[in-house]
Specification:
Blueprint lengths: L1 E6 L2 H11 L3 E7 L6 H15 L4 H18 L5 H14 L4 H11 L2 H8 L3 H4 L6 E6 L7 H14 L5 E6 L26 H15 L1
Parallel strand pairs: 1-2, 2-3, 3-4
Helix pairs in contact: 2-3, 2-6, 3-4, 4-5
Length: about 210
């Protein structure tokens, strides 16, 4: 029996593969998103800044900038025109010219437009094979409260009743025991992945194939 395990963006790709290849018989989605990429980035930005203790007013200002910038990326603007509009948004926010160049270049690339526009729920709403969904409640990159319900709703729309959802307390995006969930903690945590998560994955798969 062939299955695919995907973590983070891998959790977006795994259902895409399963949608095209009938030999894929199950999915394990770890910290996977169920909402569009721009929504993932918006919730990620807020969660990360909150974990860092950034004041509320600064978070709100940054979110307004993010929404303006993401809307530009998702617009019909391309090339230099897009880069100029992005630079203008960053300049209004008070960023340095070096930061403006770096951010504008990164956001104007085709991949970012694809990622922001992509809605994983469209494929998930056709997914009828067994799915195991795992998420840590300290995940600041793919926020559980926004993404797990979206994945579940999409699977329900597919008529899929063979899914299992697990939310782990105190685990981050990499399923490590964490304090805040901020990425800056990742390298300082001795645990590569919580053993309970690995046990749950293996048990679920074994139950499936028996």
């Amino acid at each position: 029996m062939i299955g695919i395990l995907g973590l983070s963006e891998g959790g977006i790709i795994a259902p895409m593969v399963a949608d095209r290849r009938r030999e894929v018989r199950f999915l394990v989605l770890m910290a996977a998103s169920g909402i569009t990429g721009d929504q993932v980035l918006m919730t990620q930005s807020q969660a990360l800044t909150e974990a860092q203790g950034v004041p509320f007013q600064m978070i709100e200002a940054a979110q307004q900038l993010n929404r303006r910038v993401y809307d530009l990326v998702l617009s019909s603007l391309e090339g230099e025109a897009l880069a100029e509009e992005l630079a203008g948004a960053f300049r209004d926010f008070g960023m340095s010219e070096q930061e403006i160049t770096s951010q504008s270049t990164a956001l104007a690339c085709p991949y970012m437009r694809y990622f922001m526009a992509y809605d994983p729920s469209r494929v998930l709403s056709r997914t009828r094979i067994p799915v195991l969904m795992l998420q840590g409640d300290l995940d600041t990159q793919v926020v559980a409260g926004k993404n797990l319900p979206a994945i579940e709703d999409a699977l329900k729309a597919a008529g899929n009743t063979r899914y299992t959802e697990k939310l782990y307390g105190g685990l981050n995006h990499l399923f490590q025991p964490a304090q805040t969930g901020a990425p800056s903690e990742y390298g300082s945590i001795d645990t590569t992945m919580d053993e309970k998560v690995m046990e749950d994955i293996s048990s679920w798969i074994l139950d499936l194939v028996q």
